Amino acid sequence: MKKLLSVLLLFTGLNTAIAQQTNTPFAVRGFHLDLRIQVMTMPALKAFALKLKQNGMNTLVMEWEGTYPFEKHPLIANRYAYSKLQIKSFIKYCDSLGIDVIPLQQSFGHVEYILRHQRYKNLREDQKDVSQVCPLETDGDRALFTDLYTELAATHTSKYIHIGGDETYLLGHDARCKAKAQQEGKSKLYTDYIKMLCDIVIKLGKRPVLWADIALKYPEAIKSLPKETVFVDWNYGWDLSYFGNHQKLMESGFEVWGSPALRSSPDNYNLTQWEKHFKNIRDFIPAAAKLGYKGMIMTSWSTSGQYSSVYESEADVAELYAIRHVYPLSGFNILTAAYFEALKINQPLNITAFVYKYGHDRFSLDKTGATTFWEALKAAPYDVQQGEVKSPLPMSVAQLLDSCIIARRKLYALKPVKNLPEFEHFKLMADIRVYYLTYQQIEKEVNDSSFNAAQKPAVIGRLKQLLTESKKLDNRFTQLNSDFLNPSAIAAENELRNIKVTGLFNRLSGNK
Predict the structure, then answer these.
(1) Taken in order 152, 156, 161, 164, is the CA torsion positive or negative?
(2) Which whole-number Å values give the CA distances from 308 to 112, 167, 318, 321, in the listed order?
(3) Does residue 71 sit in helix, strand or coil?
(4) Which residue of 134, 205, 309, 406 sits 20 to 30 Å from the alpha carbon of 105, by its own alpha carbon?
(5) How far apart are CA 296 and CA 388, in angstroms?
(6) What is the CA radius of gyration of the chain?
(7) pLDDT means per 10 residues in the chain (512 residues)?
(8) How far apart are CA 126 and CA 359, in angstroms?
(9) Structure pTM?
């Protein structure tokens, strides 16, 4: 009970009043949880559902992936899987709150966690890149997803099943699919398969939901899909027609929902582009309302959905590692609150005013303190790739590090009066960023052509200092997320966050 209470306080704060009726035009108001990594504890899930209810939400899209214990397909579940009893209890709890739990089962791309197993090898589009099913393995695909959808329909009371369908990068890749694509077009290859999936869902008495990015590429072809289909237009800050002809999608007659994001690429352990996500909320939600979207689902990606495969041999996958991890959702209360607020008003969110009010209400910061807080969050939001800073202006890693040290200093100078654990997440994220950029500076130096053996001892000493610092960061991360993530998930996050530092230290020092 004490653990559940601490999680509830983490999410809801001291205000437990049910949100009043909002002015939102969206009948579906919800949140998407990505459980591919960073699997939340069941008390944390229930606390989050309560938080949704208290803020006027009515929908939760659950991307269970390997955490769902399929009975007919026991290889799919991973070590973090919930029990059927836990899932049924969670859905019953959400039903009592008026929260509709929609299961999301990827069924085209992003299914490497299924196709990695030999049992499903005949369904692969490619035997090396096991991320996507072959849409022409019709009988096998139909049998697999009929099984999975049937189990999901039996445990979920929602009238919807989300079938995924995004980012089908291998479309038309193998010989048979390539031939069909050349003869009839990739659009036919895509929509014939999606139609089969939709028909399975409809036969189960549910409505199919799918991501709209590929449909926007082929707006004419989607006319063959069942009219019960719902498209989810995910937009993380780009033009509405980024994926294709948006106007034709709007004219198609299908129901459309929108999806912004509060964690997305290039966010990772070491970077959160706070201002980008605030602007996404500010701009996309009113645009979607104006277009007549019927729903709004906030996505929160713990990873990119792409995996790095470790092979036992040329044909056998031994392990999959998710590419790109981000800080857990436990540290993103401010963006979640901004999303809730944006749905309550009939105008674009005033970001600065919101952040100032949040700083005052949550942490008792005055106007100067709230201003400093916002400046620290949005400072130098640039990624580093292969030693180069991805910035619109020339900037070295050392310069970026200096900017982030200054931003961290501003955060540490603030003196919040209440909700101190929440504020500690911001401080930890800032520390992790400085730790990471310090390593990036070292990595850049050792990759310079002038680096030689005489310089190794000094570098080894700096790396040793970083590893000492990493232990402190790991302990803080564990303490702040102990009620939120499973212990083994926390250990995995700590190990992966430090893997490059540990690897370089071992390589240069000869540490065995």
Answers:
(1) negative
(2) 10, 17, 11, 5
(3) coil
(4) 309
(5) 36
(6) 23
(7) 47 40 82 96 98 98 97 96 98 98 97 96 93 97 98 98 95 92 92 97 98 90 92 96 90 95 94 98 97 96 90 86 93 98 96 98 97 97 94 95 98 98 98 98 96 97 98 98 95 95 96 74
(8) 50
(9) 0.94
